[in-house]
């Protein structure tokens, strides 16, 4: 076997294993979304519990991603990869066999914990396996394509499994991927880790997890009133914990998140825009999926297929966006992209009705969203590394991924509160159930559209500079590196 590993072709087989890992981690963000109505009915879950099936995974994944990168670099990337694989597989099996809503939510949270080990370990091994040159660019292009299409694959696969098997297979299918990944990882991956005196920022990790968790939970409690004691208490507690986290990062020798990474104006703008994108993609798209199944009455399979239209537009427009990025730089794309997304979301808010017509009330909005998102993904990764020193490249890119999932967690919580209040008001005024649900979805889309307008404003005010200033050669070369040696 060692002779095989010495061959150049073995690197590409190793990349196939790592790309599979990337696919599993990304699609698990969306594969469960299609199964939510069936899982909710089967386990007798409330609407509040239903949204936590997505939030629990995104929150633990996003909160622990930076720590996962540190563990991979310090403990060993292959070792972390294998442990992450085993844990992710066991958590998926637990979720697939869960007999209650609380148990399923707990399994989803554990999935997120091990995904936070898997993702950075896999991407760090790509940086080690392909250290430079055209092969490196090609490898990360493949990883980027997998990441970009994983969400759509999750929706489609979730629809197929829910339709022809059961919602439980949306989780159990991960066991198959895990077995393939473990065998391939054991045979093809080599160990590597950062050298030197490496220490974990334990208190920084604890405070950021408590802060983010308290903040997200506080938003979910807002359903009972923004002025209620528990809502204010958890939101205030989250802010205090995050302030303590920042204080710790200023004083420890090896911080979990060096503040120089987020203090840069352009990078700060990129992180904020990414957080809004996460809230829109995970939050509002969840409600579009529910609209397809609950109001329009589409089967899970057709609901998955209906969502693919946006991904097709993204893939078709990305080459154009890449050409524009090379010619004009990232700033125009990061202003125009959110505006297109906002237009699509406002279209949903105004167009959808209880009768439901996919071609006239949904498809135009998906096209606008696809155009908008195609102009956002590539430039955001470039800006993540603007002015970053090489040893901070990994943590800077990991922060982009973290802000996406944390933004998604907060977005889902906020949209759920707005949805619940609107549905209650509509039912109280005499509206039918489907009409009330549609009103709730429209409110969520409206709020998401306002968020995208805010993202465009953030880009306009914070992301400034010439193309060469915003995309220096070193940043452009490593733009797709999501996690590396810190």
UniProtKB/TrEMBL annotation:
Record GO cellular component, one term: plasma membrane
Transmembrane residue ranges: 12-36, 51-68, 80-97, 109-128, 140-160, 166-190, 202-220, 232-250, 271-294, 300-321, 333-352, 358-378, 399-421, 441-463
Top-level lineage group: Bacteria
Domain Major facilitator superfamily (MFS) profile: 14-467
Recorded topology in the membrane: Multi-pass membrane protein
Keywords, alphabetical: Cell membrane, Membrane, Transmembrane, Transmembrane helix, Transport
GO molecular function: transmembrane transporter activity
Primary location recorded for the protein, binned into one broad class: membrane
Pfam families: MFS_1
Localization: Cell membrane
Record-linked PANTHER family: BLR6921 PROTEIN (PTHR42718:SF46), MAJOR FACILITATOR SUPERFAMILY MULTIDRUG TRANSPORTER MFSC (PTHR42718)
Protein known as: MFS transporter
Organism of provenance: Cellulomonas humilata
């Amino acid at each position: 076997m060692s002779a095989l590993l010495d061959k150049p072709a073995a690197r590409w087989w190793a990349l196939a294993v790592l790309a599979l890992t990337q696919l599993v981690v990304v699609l698990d963000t969306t594969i469960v979304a299609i199964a939510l109505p069936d899982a909710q009915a089967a386990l007798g879950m409330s609407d509040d519990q239903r949204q936590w099936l997505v939030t629990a995974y995104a929150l633990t994944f996003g909160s622990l991603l930076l720590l996962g990168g540190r563990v991979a670099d310090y403990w060993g990337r292959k070792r972390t990869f294998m442990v992450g694989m085993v844990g992710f597989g066991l958590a998926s099996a637990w979720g697939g066999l869960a007999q209650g809503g609380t148990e399923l939510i707990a399994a989803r949270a554990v999935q997120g914990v091990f995904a936070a080990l898997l993702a950075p370990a896999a991407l760090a091994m790509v940086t080690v396996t392909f250290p430079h040159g055209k092969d490196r660019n090609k490898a990360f292009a493949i990883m980027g394509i997998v990441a970009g299409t994983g969400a759509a694959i999750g929706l489609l696969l979730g629809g197929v499994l829910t339709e022809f098997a059961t919602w439980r297979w949306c989780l159990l299918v991960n066991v198959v991927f895990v077995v393939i990944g473990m065998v391939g990882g054991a045979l093809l991956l080599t160990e590597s880790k950062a050298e030197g005196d490496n220490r974990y920022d334990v208190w920084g990790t604890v405070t950021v997890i408590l802060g983010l968790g308290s903040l997200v939970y506080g938003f979910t409690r807002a359903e009972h009133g923004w002025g209620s004691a528990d809502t204010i208490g958890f939101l205030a507690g989250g802010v205090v914990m995050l302030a303590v986290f920042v204080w710790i990062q200023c004083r420890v020798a090896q911080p979990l998140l060096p503040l120089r990474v987020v203090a840069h104006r352009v990078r700060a703008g990129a992180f904020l825009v990414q957080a809004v994108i996460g809230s829109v993609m995970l939050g509002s798209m969840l409600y579009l999926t529910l609209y397809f199944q609950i109001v329009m009455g589409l089967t899970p399979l057709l609901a998955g297929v209906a969502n693919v239209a946006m991904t097709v537009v993204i893939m078709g427009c990305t080459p154009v966006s890449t050409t524009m990025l090379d010619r004009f730089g990232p700033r125009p794309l990061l202003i125009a992209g959110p505006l297109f997304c906002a237009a699509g979301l406002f279209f949903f808010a105004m167009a959808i009705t209880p009768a439901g017509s996919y071609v006239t009330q949904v498809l135009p909005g998906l096209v606008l969203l696809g155009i908008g998102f195609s102009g956002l993904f590539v430039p955001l990764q470039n800006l993540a590394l603007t002015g970053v020193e090489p040893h901070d490249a990994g943590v800077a890119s990991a922060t982009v991924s973290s802000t996406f999932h944390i933004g998604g967690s907060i977005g889902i919580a906020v949209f759920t509160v707005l949805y619940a209040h609107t549905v209650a008001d509509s039912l109280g005024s005499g509206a039918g159930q489907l009409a009330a649900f549609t009103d709730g979805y429209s409110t969520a889309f409206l709020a998401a559209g306002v968020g995208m307008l805010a993202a465009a404003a953030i880009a306009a005010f914070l992301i400034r500079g010439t193309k060469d200033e915003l995309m220096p050669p070193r940043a452009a070369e490593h733009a797709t590196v999501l996690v590396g040696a810190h």
